[in-house]
Amino acid sequence: LPTKYRTGNGKKLTIIKASEHNLKNINVEFPLGLFIAITGVSGSGKSTLMTDILANALNQKFYRAKLAPGKHEAIIGWEHIDKVINIDQSPIGRTPRSNPATYTGAFTPIRELFASLPEAKIKGYKAGRFSFNVVGGRCEACSGDGMVKIEMQFLPNVYVECAVCHGQRYNKEALEIYYKDHRQDGAGKNIAAVLNMTVEEALDFFKNIPAIRQKLATLQEVGLGYIKLGQSATTLSGGEAQRVKLATELSRRATGKTLYILDEPTTGLHFDDIKRLLQVLNQLVDKGNTILIIEHNLDVIKSVDWIIDLGPEGGDQGGAIVAVGTPRQVAKNKKSYTGQYLKKVL
Questions:
Q1: Count of alpha carbons within 13 angstroms of residue 71, beta-carbon side
Q2: Residue 138 pLDDT > 90, yes or no?
Q3: What domain range is 171 assigned to?
Q4: Which residues share a beta bridge with 323?
Q5: Which part of the chain is the ABC transporter domain (predicted)?
């Protein structure tokens, strides 16, 4: 439980006359610089307000998105934010070529580091030589996949390890370049061995390279020290993919004007994962950003700065604002279902 709630930066984002689906022409204020939760029973209009109206309108404004926002008159105060980022549990990449190292941007400085080694310079290798996606350094037998697809008639395709590179994805020339001396107790690693390291091992290995260390440290912070740098994105669970995205956001230089939108981020997460998630979200708010979540989990609701409770019921009986304020203020509201449950927890 937070001992005191943040007061924000004094600026606010206001939706005027939201009336999409079952919303009853409501004006909603979001104080910026806070951790805000939109609560209410199922069907009370939470997703309509946050996703259909706010997210779509801002995406249209900032990124020229095609999706039309839900019915509302205007949004005031959008100039106080500079970007909107939606963090969900969808996969970080659709192809096995995408991995945590490429997604967080740690792979670029790793490749540059290998290209800057004396041995690589003598041979004239550039950073592209250490990418498994382009011709040059990748194994051509499997096109840098590490696996070969065997198409079966009437049966699902079978993937077998590439017989040429043995799953290492690179050709012999690229694998001959080692960072640190590998002749002494095997301390050195080639690019394939680096991709096979866990985040925790890589943090120790690259502790003297700030550009790489900073990106990996955030993955460790969100509790992903156990995943491998080159692990295929398609093998990560929803909760893991969500945390990789959060780690990427954490490692960016904060402008303090970003709005993060999360729709029920704790779905399917263990209590310990929820604790970690909350720590990361609070770090983002401490940098001056605003976080807006839809949440049903009381452990999360009680620890936010500001609650907007919609209701009172679902469907036609919903779509109105029942309570607004800090968790303690909402807990005192007799009409709010969320407040009644918060009272027991607080």
A1: 10
A2: yes
A3: 100-234
A4: 309
A5: 5-343
